[in-house]
Write a structure and sequence with these properties.
heterodimer, A: elongated, B: elongated
Chain lengths: 269, 78
């Protein structure tokens, strides 16, 4: 796996997490191949970078790439891909499958699964992945889903293993255990990446509500490395990374002037 | 003669073992098809790809619990 660091920016809406993600990704891209990924349903990368980004990987600079993921479209693709195997087996059900995929795409869990699944692919291709997360609640759910699924798959694997014993005793072939094993291994890789290589920057401003949300992120994600960042810093004293206010940090050139050295240091550490 | 012997072993030794382990099959199918019983299955999307391999077993199963038809719109097994 190419990945060295997976960086998440979270926090209350409007604290500047998208701008920070862009600035940090820009710095990291001077070191190695970097992907800037937005999973916020209200994307703002295009506006900040000063160029259209969209749902496909776009090359922004030599080694900086960006994408604004459409979770709904991803979930639909995921369901289609998975269910098309069923369609090949039984051609008569393909219209039912299309119907089901349409219905699945609005399920939040399906969307998170699809995003997590895609995230793992990107971790194979890029050295640094910077994620501009959705607002706090959704971001926490994202991590919780990953953990919940792990427990559930472990249970399923145990049951499937028992069944496999019975099946082989009866002299029958059993494909299920292999499939569950594959899926389980993929999930384990993802969780390993989240535990070993992920950093979370909880962004806040000098304002009580956003500070409280940033603290909540730190408390809820106990088993991950979470750092508090005070964006648009003026004078407040606190034990966190401080990023001074920059006037209109939009467009690539302006972003380079953004003072994010301290954050980059933590990422490279 | 060999066939008869094999059939005998199958019927008198292997089948009872399989039957005594049927609760495992039931548990597995229940976990995969929770929504079929009107229970919430928020993680059902993760097992979508297993359905093609389970469809035959699902069919036998819903017959064995006394349901004539599967009744899953997207998974018509009978």
């Amino acid at each position: 796996m190419l990945l060295k660091r997976l960086v998440f920016f979270g926090g209350k809406g409007g604290v500047g997490k998208s701008t920070l993600s862009c600035a940090v990704a820009l710095r990291l891209s001077q070191i190695d191949k970097t992907l800037l990924l937005s999973v916020d349903p209200a994307h703002s990368l295009s506006g900040i970078l000063g160029m259209p980004v969209g749902n496909h990987i776009k090359q922004v600079k030599e080694s900086l790439f960006a994408i604004e993921l459409d979770a709904q479209a991803l979930a639909e693709q995921y369901a289609q891909k998975v269910l098309s195997a069923l369609g090949e087996l039984l051609p008569s059900v393909s219209s039912g499958i299309r119907e089901y995929a349409k219905y699945l795409k609005s399920s939040p869990t399906a969307q998170e699964t699809a995003v997590l699944d895609r995230l793992l692919d990107y971790c194979q291709e890029f050295t640094y992945v910077v994620v501009d997360s959705a607002p706090t609640g959704q971001m926490l759910r994202f991590f919780e889903t990953a953990h919940m699924v792990e427990g559930w798959y472990a249970f399923l694997h145990k049951v499937a293993k028992e069944r496999h014993k019975v099946e082989s005793f009866m002299g029958r072939e059993d494909k299920l255990i292999g499939l569950i094993q594959n899926r389980k291994e993929r999930l384990e890789t993802l969780l390993h990446v989240l535990r070993e290589k992920a950093l979370v920057f909880a962004v806040a401003n000098e304002e009580p509500l956003s500070l409280q949300e940033a603290k909540e992120i730190r408390e809820r994600l106990r088993d991950m490395r979470v750092y508090m960042v005070l964006n648009r810093w003026h004078s407040m004293e606190c034990d966190c990374i401080k990023v001074p206010e920059t006037e209109r940090p939009y467009g690539l050139e302006a972003l380079e002037g953004f003072r994010v050295e301290e954050i980059v240091e933590f990422v490279l550490r | 003669m060999k066939d008869i012997l094999r059939g005998f072993v199958e019927l008198h030794f292997k089948r009872p073992v399989e039957v005594s382990y049927s609760h495992i099959r039931d548990l597995l199918l229940l976990s995969l098809f929770l929504d079929y019983f009107g229970l919430d299955n928020p993680l059902g999307v993760y097992v979508l790809e297993l359905y093609p391999y389970m469809i035959h077993e699902f069919h036998l199963w819903h017959r064995s619990v006394g349901l004539e038809r599967g009744g899953l719109g997207f998974l018509p097994c009978c």
